[in-house]
Amino acid sequence: MNDNFPTPITTENDLSFYENYLHQEFDVLPKPTHNLTDYLKPHIGKTIKADCAVGNRLESKIGILTQVGEDFITITLQSKKDMIIGLKTVKFLTILQNSIKNPYF
Question: What is the torsional sign of CA 85, 90, 96, 97?
Fold first, then answer.
């Protein structure tokens, strides 16, 4: 059990002590991505699932991410056909394939 907590804030010095304590505890923060395309570009070639809004329903498309544009993505479906999807219609995007290859036994 962690009982090594800082003391309560009572003076201005305690405030700086707490600030240093918080910087030590939470020093590793991920850099925020500015937009979705910057996040998706390293995942080109991976299998993704895109859930798109079509009317009042969601339609799922699964394929290999081949291109990331400014406001669209291109995936290759299992039937080897290319599909262009506008990012404005994408509600959920799941990366199904990670970079780790499983060994064959």
Answer: positive
pLDDT of residue 1: 44
Averaged pLDDT in 10-residue chunks for the chain of 105 residues = 61 78 68 78 92 93 94 94 94 81 58
Specify the pTM. 0.61
Give long-range contacts, CB 8 A cutoff, 24+ apart: 45-48: 46/95, 46/96, 46/97, 46/98, 46/99, 47/95, 47/96, 47/97, 48/75, 48/93, 48/94, 48/95, 48/96, 48/97
Amino acid at 57: R
Please list, residue by residue across 12-40, b when 16 or more beta carbons sit within 10 angstroms of its beta carbon and e when fewer do: eeeeeeeeeeeeeeeeeeeeeeeeeeeeb
